[in-house]
From TrEMBL:
<dbReference type="InterPro" id="IPR000086">
    <property type="entry name" value="NUDIX_hydrolase_dom"/>
</dbReference>
<feature type="domain" description="Nudix hydrolase">
    <location>
        <begin position="29"/>
        <end position="171"/>
    </location>
</feature>
<dbReference type="InterPro" id="IPR015797">
    <property type="entry name" value="NUDIX_hydrolase-like_dom_sf"/>
</dbReference>
<dbReference type="Pfam" id="PF00293">
    <property type="entry name" value="NUDIX"/>
</dbReference>
<keyword id="KW-0378">Hydrolase</keyword>
<protein>
    <submittedName>
        <fullName>NUDIX domain-containing protein</fullName>
    </submittedName>
</protein>
<dbReference type="InterPro" id="IPR020084">
    <property type="entry name" value="NUDIX_hydrolase_CS"/>
</dbReference>
Length: 182
């Protein structure tokens, strides 16, 4: 679905300009997204397998929930909306803990450059996996993996064929922040 997004400068600040998401991707314009990592108190992390028809990183495992921030939308409100859309979980803004913003640029093709600032949040998953409802158009599968297994598979990207290549610093930050809350 194409939607309007805010355009950001190199430091992640709004430029006052906006365009369709497709144009931002075509021109490599920086725009905001959200990443929500859901974890359980017993040390498991919710991961999603991206849909096989996605434009970027199809069928790879990724963050619990990810999505674009719509033009003029508050970042936390976008995160709450995306959690409801992608995994069918109703949360509030107070359930989300911001842990950082990561600049990411992935050149998918000559006319598709995914240039984003990921606003990353943590949230405790209190519902069992079987009660989540994945968004079939975006998500092929959901899984809960032990934090140690997740760390082994992502640090240094030892399993590059399985996960979206967000980079070692990104994954180390997520793992450290979750571990600090257990």
């Amino acid at each position: 679905m194409d939607e309007w997004v805010d355009i950001l400068d190199e430091q992640g600040k709004p430029t006052g300009k906006s365009c369709l998401k497709s144009e931002a991707h075509q021109k490599g314009l920086l725009h905001p997204t959200i990443h929500v990592w859901l974890y359980t108190k017993d040390g498991r992390v919710l991961i999603q397998q991206r849909g096989k028809h996605k434009d970027t990183h199809p069928s790879l495992w990724d963050v619990s929930v990810a999505g674009h921030v719509a033009f003029g939308e508050d970042i936390k409100i976008a995160a709450v909306r995306e959690v409801a859309e992608e995994v069918g979980l109703t949360i509030s803004e107070t359930d989300l803990e911001p842990i950082g913003t990561f600049k990411a640029i992935h050149k998918i093709s000559n006319d598709f450059i995914d240039a984003e600032f990921h606003h990353v949040f943590l949230g405790e998953l209190k519902e069992p996996l079987h009660q989540l409802t994945k968004q079939d158009s975006e998500v092929d599968a959901l899984d809960l993996v032990p934090l140690l297994q997740f760390a082994e598979e992502t640090w240094g990207m030892a399993n590059t064929g399985k996960y979206v290549p967000h980079g070692t610093l990104y994954y180390k930050t997520i793992i450290k922040e979750i571990k600090n809350r257990l």
